[in-house]
Specification:
This protein has one domain (3-70, 83-189): Rossmann fold (3-Layer(aba) Sandwich), CATH 3.40.50.150. The chain starts with a helix and ends in a 7-residue tail after the last strand. Residues 5-15, 74-84 and 192-196 have low confidence and may be disordered. It has a 7-stranded mixed β-sheet with strand order 3-2-1-4-5-7-6. The protein has 5 helices and 7 strands. Helices cover 23% and strands 27% of the residues. By secondary structure, the protein is α/β, with parallel strands linked by helices. The protein has helices at residues 3-16, 20-32, 50-54, 121-127, 154-159, and strands at 38-41, 59-63, 88-92, 107-113, 128-137, 163-173, 180-189.
Length: 196
Amino acid sequence: MSLDAQVTKRKERQFDEPSPLVRRYALKIAEASGGLPILDVACGSGRNAFPLRKLGCTVICIDRDLSRLPKQPLSIPSDLSGPTGPELIPRQMDLLKDSWPFSESSIGGIINIHFFSPSLLPAFERSLAPGGYLLLETVPGCGGNYLELPKAGTVRSAFENVFGIESYHERKVGPEGVDAVTVRVLARKGSQRANR
């Protein structure tokens, strides 16, 4: 295999690997889900759903285009497979245009990696069951991405009355004079942990 082919293969593998943030918190999210399904919002290839499914969770993969999800089921341990085993459920929807279909407290956890729409935040809050986790990471601040990123403090203020924020990190991005930040947050609904 040529060096170029090896580099391309390595990049493809890295792209399909779960986000480091998901790998770090998957077990915590799975354990707190209470057997309710977990949403992978803007799922893409489903890379972030797989670790949760391997932990025994049913994951609803939402995206406008589901063509990148694998057609074959993910191989999981035999003690988790079968009619009551974890599923990966595709759900096609335009997150910016379609109505939010999930009822109050019906979701055990939400992961939202590299997609951000402030209009979804109230829906996340409503749908997430008490004790469930929300893991959110905005798009990185490269190129013109800063145009779709929130202002400093807005994500924290949107959640701090209902969620216990367990991990929160903002990083300023964009040109001088622009108030835009990337955000990584892990928050638990109804949790009384001290905000950090």
